[in-house]
Amino acid sequence: MTVDVAGNPTRSTYPAPTQAWMRALERTARIGEEPARILPLVIDELADQFGDLPALLSEHQSLSYRELARAANRYSRWALEQGVRVGDCVCLMMPNRPEFVAIWLGISRVGGIVALLNTSLRGASLAHCVGAARPRLAIVDSTLCAEFAGAVSPSNSGIACWAYGAHVPDFAPLELALMRQCADPLGARERPSVTTSDPALYIYTSGTTGLPKAANVSHHRIMTWSHWFSGMLDVRPSDRMYNCLPMYHSIGGVVAIGAVLVAGGSVLLRERFSASHFWCDVTDHGCTLFQYIGELCRYLVNAPHHPRETQHRLRLCCGNGLRADTWEQFVERFKIPQIIEFYAATENNFSLFNCDGRPGAIGRIPSFLGHRFNIALVRMDSDGREPLRDASGLCQHCAPNEPGDALGQIHAGSGAQGSKFEGYTDRAASEKKLMRDVFAKGDLWLRSGDLMRKDGKGFFYFVDRLGDTFRWKGENVATSEVSNVLLSFPGILDVAVYGVAVPGTEGKAGMATIVAGAGFDLPALHTYLKDVLPTYARPVFVRIRAALEVTDTFKHKKHTLAREGFDPRATEDAIYFSDPEGQQFLPMTVELYERITARELRC
């Protein structure tokens, strides 16, 4: 046994998973004691320490630690010049690039809240997200200004709109304004009082129903996410993260970046994932870490052999949604030393980590941290939608391997920041996530909306999404949003949207059962959906029938439809497949069905 100078066991005497938890605890220990120390100030400290070493790299731009800090300082002074005050919102719509990080660091340093807009959104969905944030200003990459202006009028919305990258009519040129700003560190008198309890970002999440909701993300959560993951991954200055996840999401835009920067490492940013370019990127740039979603790992496993697929320096891959079968193939084929799978959601007050390397598990809670992470699975009613309550009105814990809704307990008091639910900008939506009197009168819990099970050894496993949301291509798809889009198309009288399992894919593919009337044009529908919905939200399968069954409360009966899926032998209804190559809907035949289920055709 190894001991320190005082004779106490050192961390190295513990198993590797326990060491990961201890590192995370150590790296987050100071956050509550230093409320004025927010991530933008940490970046200033890192600039002094690491100077010209690379922080963020991309095809378009690279920033050293010093350059990142100086760019953030310019955005801080620009925001102050525009009259941004503590609590004011600035929308940001930009593809993956280093400037994205500099913008939200600089604006949040002076108390602004940056709303990270999904670059795939268009029309009414985008307008809704902007409206939910109630911004004073918007920064839009010049390549996305047309889409933004199509949803929100720069001249009539009351929002001061700025374009980054090129001159765009009706948008003020951001880079010209930045050139006037000093890049030196802000003095104490320049900075408004901003602490870890203040909001820093709005990050959008589909939740369980309806249009996207803007989740509040405080400086405390940003600090916790960054330092906790840094400890879990044991990030060092020699590490380089490969990050191709969307930066408008919490993992791609905060966690995968912050966890590496706070430890002095660097991040390679890519706008999107490419299976054909992945191994050249990783090897050419010496990446040691990869932030994944399970779908990306599946793409790599299903891709043809690449001559450099085992010549990498990757020491660890971290992410979520990696199925057990893909996990084992991914590790074996590409010689990956370690996987850390985790479960988290932007608005949730709890997370889970699988540091043990158990394929398929999303995490467990070590016994010595059971008091800190109070997570429970509750039994569901016969419909599988609401927690079951007994005669006394209280909920019941699930038995081992029994699926149930995952809840996180909310503790009162200033010392319970980690269990706090920060909610959405929509108070009514926030209230729907809460459950009271769960296991005792007066207790308060947060509903995750995710169905999980826990085995006899304490490992949690993800089962499915609750409510009317399913996950596809790494994104949550709200069925009500897709339904509303479909119902606005001529000739569609009624529609039910749901997810169906497709062999060899992660999540569920979208399927829409349509009641069609006069004037319905199927080829025109395909073109329409491409124009109004992001790729992940477009139905992969369309079924046409005479009528839809509804419950006594006029809700669509989707269970039978989902069970029948896209198998043409299960129904006499016409079913169509959105061919990703031919850009059209193809009639579903038995032969086509078998090709899809045999993984010969990709969805």
Strand residue content: 15-25%
Q: Which residue ranges are poorly predicted, with pLDDT under 50 across at least 5 consecutive positions?
A: 1-9
Strand ordering within the main sheet:
2-1-11-10-12-13-14-15
The total count of strands amounts to 27
Q: Helix segment count?
A: 17
The helix-and-strand class reads alpha/beta
The main β sheet shows up as: 8 strands, mixed
Summarize model confidence as the mean pLDDT. 91
Q: Which CATH class of the largest domain applies here?
A: Alpha Beta
Cα gyration radius (Å):
24 Å
Q: Helicity, in percent?
A: 25-40%
Q: In CATH terms, what is the architecture of the largest domain? A: 3-Layer(aba) Sandwich
- In CATH, the topology of the largest domain is named Rossmann fold
Distance linking N and C termini: 53 Å
Rough outline: globular
Number of domains: 3
Description:
The protein is an alpha/beta fold and 603 residues long. It folds into 3 domains: 16-272, Rossmann fold (3-Layer(aba) Sandwich); 370-465, Luciferase, domain 3 (Roll); 469-597, ANL, C-terminal domain (GMP Synthetase, Chain A, domain 3, 2-Layer Sandwich), CATH 3.30.300. It has 17 helices and 27 strands. It has an 8-stranded mixed sheet with strand order 2-1-11-10-12-13-14-15. A 7-stranded mixed sheet has the order 7-6-5-3-4-8-9, sandwiched between helices. Strands 16, 17, 18, 19 and 20 form a 5-stranded antiparallel sheet that branches. Strand 12, helix 11 (294-302) and strand 13 (316-320) form a beta-alpha-beta unit. Helix 1 (16-28) packs antiparallel against helix 8 (219-233), helix 5 packs across helix 6 and helix 11 packs across helix 12.
